[in-house]
Design brief:
This protein has 153 residues and is mainly alpha-helical. The chain has six helices and three strands, in the order H-H-E-H-E-H-E-H-H. The structure holds 5-O-phosphono-beta-D-ribofuranose.
């Protein structure tokens, strides 16, 4: 994520990955304040065996796009809700990549963080049967958790 202040959003991605028993690392890497850290992180990502990078950022959200420019590892962008523009700035910054440098872009905020984690798991599940069954279990639990009526009675 681009800032420690993104963690209240990005912890939902982490919690979802925890639930799926999917190993991850959570790092603060700012495209603007720590550009050398971003360069090192993205340039070493493939060699370190990362299968996907979930990059959450807000405002002038350059982290996902710059990460995608620096590594062939798939980048999943999460627009963090910004104070001034409610995350529309983040969304447009992340989604409007030039042709040739893709970033898979998710919804603003918590839903996007959760879905980025689920999407990463789904990518891994294409050739990992255990991951696929954990994802099936997640979906089943989600379905079972939807009540037929809005009240408890
Ligand atoms: C972005 O600037 C971060 O991703 C964060 O969403 C936003 C604001 O950062 P802080 O000023 O709260 O550190 O780079």
């Amino acid at each position: 994520m681009g800032s420690r202040s993104d963690w209240p959003t990005m912890e939902h991605a982490a919690a979802t990955l925890d639930r799926l028993h999917l190993a991850y690392e959570a790092r603060v890497v700012s495209a603007h304040r720590t550009p050398d850290r971003l360069y090192d992180y993205a340039k070493t990502a493939r060699a370190r065996g990362l299968k996907a990078i979930i990059a959450g950022a807000g405002g002038a959200a350059h982290l996902p796009g710059m990460a995608a420019a620096l590594t062939p590892v798939p980048v999943l962008g999460v627009p963090v809700e910004s104070r001034a523009l409610k995350g529309e700035d983040s969304l447009l910054s992340i989604v409007q990549m030039p042709g040739g440098v893709p970033v898979a872009t998710f919804a603003i905020g918590k839903a996007g963080a959760i879905n980025a984690a689920l999407f990463a798991a789904a990518m891994l599940a294409t050739d990992d049967a255990e991951m696929a069954s954990r994802l099936d279990a997640y979906r089943d639990a989600q379905t079972a958790g939807v009540p037929e009526t809005p009240s408890d009675d």
